[in-house]
Structures are given as C-alpha cells and as structure tokens.
Amino acid sequence: MCARSRIVLLAAAVAAVLATPVAAQPSSSWSSRIEGDAVKQPTAPPGTVMVPRPPTGPRVIAPPAARQSSVLKKGATPTAALKPIPEPKGDNAAYLAFDNGQFLTALKLAEQAAQTGQPEAHTLIARIHGEGHGVPRNPALAAQWFQRAAELGDPEGAFALGLMYVAGRGVEKSNPNAAGMFERAAATGHVYANYNLGLMFLSGLGKPENPIRGAQHLTYAAEKGIAAAQYDLATLYINGHGVAADGYLASRWLKRAAEQNMAEAQFDYAIMLLKGQGLNEDRADALRYLRLAADHGLAAAQNRLAHVLNEGSGTPPNKREAAKWRLLAKSQGLADDKLDGMVRQLPGADRTTAEALAGEWLERASVGASQQ
After folding, report:
1. Residue 168 domain-assigned (yes or no)
2. Hey, how many other C-beta atoms are within 10 angstroms of the C-beta on 246?
3. Which residue from 109, 78, 107 is spatially nearest to 93, judged by alpha carbons?
4. Residue 89: which CATH number?
5. What one-character-per-residue DSSP string does 179-225 give?
6. Domain range spanning residue 163?
7. Handedness of CA 132, 136, 140, 143 (dihedral sign)
8. Number of domains the chain contains
9. pLDDT tens-place string over residues 230-240
10. Residues 101, 84: contact at Cβ < 8 Å?
11. What is the pTM of this model?
C-alpha cells in the first residue's frame, strides 16, 4: 500500500475516533498466543497449533532462494550487459550459468547433465520452467521435472514438488502427496521439509495427527535456526502439546525467534515478560521487544504498547506516543474503546502531534516496503 493510501486510512481512523461518543471502557482488545482469552480466535481442528493469522491449511514455508542471479534483483544490472561471459565449465556449469543470468545456456547444460542422470540438473530444469526464466512459465512441466528429481534422490526437488502439491500449482492439490514429498526430503535432513512435515503431523493434514512426531520435526527445524519453528515449538511447550509443558523452554524458544526479528515472537515474548514470566535476565527488556513488534506493524503489538505508554507500566506515561500507536493499530481495524476514549480526551495540540507522529511512521513504513 502506498504512503498516501495508508495516510488516508489513518485520517479516516482518526476521524472515527474523534466522532464516536465516549463509551464504557472495557478491557483492551489485543491478542497473543499466551493470552488466548483476550480475543476470540478461529476454531481449530483438534491438534492444530493456532497461528496469529487464520490457518487455511498447512502453513508451509519455503527457504530463501539458494541460488539467486543478480539479474533477478530489482534495479540490478544484468551481468551479461557488462561483458561477455564464456559458457561455464565443470560439474556446476548449469548453475553457474543460471547465476550469471544465462538462463537458456543453463537450461541447455542442465538438460545435458540430466541425460546422465544427475538429480540436481532435473531440479534446475524444473525451476527454470516453473519460474519462467528465459522460457514461458510452465508449472505442469516443472512438476514433472521435480518429480523425476525426487525419484533420483534430490531433496530440493522433492521439497519443491511438495510445495506444489500444497498449493495445487502444476499438479492437483493433495496434502497427502505433499506430505510424502516433505517426508522424503526431511529424511535427508532438509530443514524446511522437517518444519512443514511437523505442522502436518500436528494438524492431521496430509498425515495422521501425531503431536509427538510433530514436535520432533519442529524441534529439528528449531535447532537449525528456523524462526517459525522456534515460535511454534514455544507454543507447544506453553500448551504441553506433543511435549511436556515447560515454561522455561517456551521462553527460551520464544526468545530465540524474537531475536531473529520475528514480530509475532517479539510480541508474545514481551507479553510473557510483562506478566513476570520469561527469562529472568530479560525482564527489563519487555518494552524493547514490544516496541520492536510494534515497529514491524503488528497491530496487536501497537495497541498493547499504547496501553503500556498510557498507563505507565514500567515506563513513564506518554499519552501522545500512546495515542500515536493507538491510531496506527486502529488504522488496521483493531477495536479498543478505552484507548479511543483516551485519544478523544487529549488536548488538541497533543492529539495533532500524535496524528503527525503516526503519519511519519506510516511514511517510513511505506518507504521501507517499497525498497524491499
């Protein structure tokens, strides 16, 4: 969303705050995984681990592109435009050509390697057709090449085909088939395959529901540094689902995800600290984690930060800044009559300052998003 559009939304939210009569002030409206009674969450199937966004199926995560050509980056100058590049040689010639943006050369070299039975060559051919590098995009053809790569033992090919089965892209959508591909890749230690397979065991989608197996796969991915796995594993320890309930381990994994800049983890860890839970050495950092989550644009974190600043919980009260964060949370549709009343009761100058601060934050957020 562009800066102008977001500021228009903010202005509408401000107008709604100022136009609404002061009403009774119920408890704040915000949510986290560790305070499930704050906001009613969507009903989940037995064994499903709830996530902040409503789940629509397996919460699959694909790894960052392992091989990214400079010509694929926004605003980059194609390497080939700088000087002629000779055709690569050697075992990795096809991938070297791909990295240099020589997609048709990469396809030719990969096809030659595929004729000798090289599994990774099949995966590269699939990616070229699936993403449309130098050729028309063809998901169905890509799925065929990924299938052959998986049969030859390439875990990346198996994992990629699993993602296609989940999405129904190039193949008929099938959670069981996706689970089979993830399981094949996970057996080789593929970290993202282990994570996604764990979620399938937890949800019963594509695999029989088995919380213990699910926790085992999530633990593997969490130990390998996947923030989403660390966050979900913390939830299992909070709920005692698939593992024995353990507040210390929940805090430990939640903190590790928060340190990887995961907004939901920063928010939930801040809530644990505000409630006097979490790791002892971090108790004074509750406000820091809450600010980080709010700065990521998480409406619930923005709203909770507004409450903390309004009430002066562990920090001097700052109603203007509290109003700023409340306006930002309200612009995302989060209701809170108590904070709306606080904004309406601010002196005109303070309210104007809060609106300006919120607008400046939206400008910075929009500029940051446009540069990604």
Report:
1. yes
2. 15
3. 109
4. 1.25.40.10
5. HHHHHHHHTTT-HHHHHHHHHHHHHTSSS---HHHHHHHHHHHHHTT
6. 62-225
7. negative
8. 1
9. 999 999 999 99
10. no
11. 0.78
